[in-house]
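Need tokens for this chain, all 177 residues.
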Amino acid sequence: MSTAQVLIEPWTDADLALLRRVNTSEMKKHVGGPETEEQLLVRHRRYLDFVPSGLGCMYRIVLLPEGEAVGTVGYGTRTWEGETVHEMGWNVLPGHQGRGIAVAATRAAVAAARREAAHRHLHAFPSVDNPASNAVCAKAGFSLVGETDFEFPPGRFMRSHNWRVDLEDLDLRAAAG
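Here are the structure tokens for all 177 residues:
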């Protein structure tokens, strides 16, 4: 399988439509289901504020050469086990899944986090029942720390794998590339 060619572009106000496109039962089955319109608007505003507040960065995934927005990838700040870390997540629209897009976009976002992130560690917490997202973590250079009970969305706990990238470990660039 060839590696997908993608570009990640910082989130803008125009990306609310993309956020709505990924807010489906199919896309959100591992994270508590679709959000209400009010919840989506709150999420959108939070994504827009990530960079100005220094809390992370959200991107739209653009498939090349088509130039079509096909998903989202990004990271935000959270406290995990007493440490301030970045948490990464991604979504690729169903018609574009299985082509390496999530892996390519996640690698690009990890590279951006190495340049821009304020904290040492970047985590991803895919459900243990989500083999596709766990495979993205493995292929994008994350190390499996173990299983954990993870709260997402707030008030809902799920059994997740805890994957981590040490953003200060430059040797991991070769493994992820």
